[in-house]
Amino acid sequence: MAWNPEVYNKFKSERFAPFYDLLALVHVKPGMEVIDLGCGTGELTRKLADTLPGSNVLGIDSSQEMLNDSKAFENEQVKFECRSIEEQLKSDKKWDLVFSNAAIQWVGNHEVLLPEIISKIRKNGQLLIQIPDQQQNISNKILNEMADEEPFKVILKDWKRTSPVLDIDSYAQIFFENGSKSMTVYEKIYPLILEDSNALFDWVSGTALIPYLEKLEGDYKQNFSDQYRILLKNKFPGSPVFYSFKRIILEATF
Ligand SMILES: C[S@@+](CC[C@H](N)C(=O)[O-])C[C@H]1O[C@@H](n2cnc3c(N)ncnc32)[C@H](O)[C@@H]1O
Question: pTM value?
Fold first, then answer.
């Protein structure tokens, strides 16, 4: 997927807020080996590392575009590598802390993925994940509805992005079944207060809109964007726009 760090970074403070909630749940211990799955530009990986003195942190991401600026966040404690989460999970290496902020919603089949991730956590280690609740967020629902209607249904060959995100009970159950010693699992609304629906369009264009535009060509790409803009305006006509962005926070020790 073609990620664009400039577009993604437009809403830094809104995107950073859940990261800080996740960070607050970290059990800080000296000398940990830590991995950040889907680290993006690396800015937050560095913030994570700065709170973990004496630990080594590896950030991996499949997007070279997102990683391009990550050199600036490297130091003797923090390194970055271009690698997919799926590829990383093939390695036998285990970690004291597996961290992932707003990334695993892009990897399929969480019933299989979560146990695989948990299998890479050392005894007494910790897992920390934050994901948007795509099943509940209206911005995702509108995209799916558009993909279900003509002309896009035919052009997209009946494709639409099916979110792998589960309900929070399912994640808690997976943790239990995979030997968790303790867990914190909750959903939280992160209020987005935006100037208007165009700003909401910009917010979504940094993430959920990308896979749709990637599958469309020529005029259809523009038409899809235009149509999405209109539907967002119909749903959020006023100014400012208040949007309840729902996210899932997952923490467990093993
Ligand atoms: C919304 S960004 C979050 C980036 C960073 N964790 C943050 O909080 O700023 C999602 C990131 O996940 C990465 N990503 C998506 N699918 C991935 C995969 N299968 N393997 C590795 N990284 C992936 C994307 O390249 C992107 O950088």
Answer: 0.91
